Automatic annotation (TrEMBL):
Keyword Oxidoreductase annotated: yes
Keyword tags: FAD, Flavoprotein, Oxidoreductase, Plasmid
Superkingdom of the organism of origin: Bacteria
Protein name per its UniProtKB record: Ferredoxin reductase
Species whose genome carries this gene: Paenarthrobacter aurescens (strain TC1)
Known cofactor(s): FAD
Entry keyword Transmembrane: no
């Protein structure tokens, strides 16, 4: 989005894009949804400017003062500005044996779809965050017997900040998904074609074992850069990367999942959200072009699709805030929830209620 928006604003200079994924550019959200249900290829991202090539190489270091990226195949690449947008990668289970599947890249999605196409009839998903829950939904739709296990007491604990746990469990159970929450994985073993996952003393068996325990920002290549990479690249609210010394690294920026942005209360927040990543890119393009961007003034937004429901979240959900249902249409499994009472702090969760959700999140009345 940084490049697309820069071109819209008339920037004619050069962008050098380096990515180690040979399938880039593509959108990840369909990988756990439509792609697994279909037979087609991973589609290229529609928003990517066709005229901009992607150089297939891995960034392995950054000479921060020289704005120079060290790469495995292209040597040193210098520029007037460096934008770090290396995203995040799946966390591997400690001591997880080879063959446990994960889902982050097109290659992962192809491997998972091939395993299902080859006749897998059951899956154990370790982790019930948004990706684990979406996978449970999609694989159940494909006819697999699905079991979900998680240490957390409810699905999507982080996405919902602890709210709507019983509802999200019910969506799973109605689709026939078996769940075990509040359990620890003790071992994962493969014998013949079957996996055995032991959780809190109970042995669960399935054809596939899938780990969906979260993502870690891709900052390993920045270890010697002197950037602050405590949890993602720490940066100012508008994306200027910070040094471990506390200062700002001149000409170095971070956007998307890899960036941890400073909020008004001084804390650093990292989102894993397609929309946030797009907003970061557009806002940086506007900053480069000398405009005051309004992209970053919007409240955080995230969405997930699962069990026949489109779930949308607007704002920071306060874990201790009171959740009030303000709209419901049971025949469509639709509902809208408000959390928080002070007008400026209101956050919203919409379930199959896009019109009501967008009116509410714009501060408009739900009536009319
Ligand atoms: C299966 C799945 C489903 C999702 N569904 C949703 C959804 O429904 N809604 C939603 O809001 N979000 C969703 N997301 C999250 C969303 O896709 C991410 O927030 C978004 O992709 C972040 O974009 P990004 O550009 O910051 O990082 P990425 O998309 O991760 O891109 C980073 C790129 O950097 C490259 N890279 C990493 N390290 C290096 C290196 N050292 N050298 C060179 N290249 C490197 C990677 O190959 C990658 O192409 C989903 C994610 C996944 C995996």
């Amino acid at each position: 989005m940084l490049i697309a928006r820069s071109r819209e604003l008339g920037f004619a200079g050069e962008f050098i894009v380096i990515d180690s994924d040979p399938n880039a550019p593509y959108d990840r959200p369909p990988l756990s949804k439509q792609f697994l249900l279909g037979t087609g290829p991973v589609e290229p991202a529609e928003w990517w400017p066709e005229a901009t090539p992607i150089l297939n190489a891995k960034a392995i270091g950054l000479l921060t003062d020289k704005r120079t990226v060290l790469t495995d195949k292209l040597g040193e690449v210098a520029a007037d500005a460096v934008v770090i947008s290396t995203g995040a990668g799946s966390i591997r289970l400690p001591n997880g044996p080879a063959g446990v599947l994960t889902l982050r890249t097109a290659q992962d999605a192809l491997a998972l779809r091939s395993a299902v196409d080859a006749g897998a009839s059951s899956a154990i998903i370790i982790g019930a965050g948004t990706i684990g829950a979406e996978l449970a939904s999609t694989l159940a739709q494909r006819g697999l017997a699905v079991t979900v296990v998680d240490l957390a007491p409810q699905p999507m604990q982080r996405f919902f900040s602890g709210h709507l746990g019983e509802e999200a469990k019910a969506w799973m159970h109605q689709a026939g998904v078996v769940t075990h929450f509040g359990v620890a994985v003790e071992s994962i073993q493969k014998t013949d074609a079957q996996w055995t996952v032991r959780v809190s003393g109970l042995d669960l068996h399935a054809d596939l074992a899938i780990s969906a325990v979260g993502a870690r920002p891709h900052t390993e290549w920045l270890t010697y850069s002197e950037l602050d990479i405590s949890n993602g690249v720490r940066c100012t609210a508008d994306g200027k990367a910070m040094l471990t010394s506390g200062g700002i690294a001149d000409g170095i920026f971070a956007i998307g999942d890899v960036s941890a942005r400073q909020a008004e209360d001084g804390t650093f927040r990292r989102f894993e959200s397609w929309t946030q990543a797009q907003r970061h890119g557009a806002a940086l393009a506007e900053y480069f072009a000398g405009f005051d961007s309004s992209e970053l003034e919007q409240a955080p937004y995230g969405w997930t699709e699962q069990f026949g429901r489109k779930v949308q979240v607007h704002g920071m959900l306060p874990p201790a805030g009171e959740l009030v249902q303000v709209y419901a249409a049971e025949e469509r499994n639709a509902a809208l929830y408000r959390i928080g009472s002070a007008e400026e702090d209101v956050a919203w969760i919409g379930v199959n209620a896009p019109r009501q959700f967008s009116r509410a999140s714009m501060g408009m009345s739900l009536l009319s």
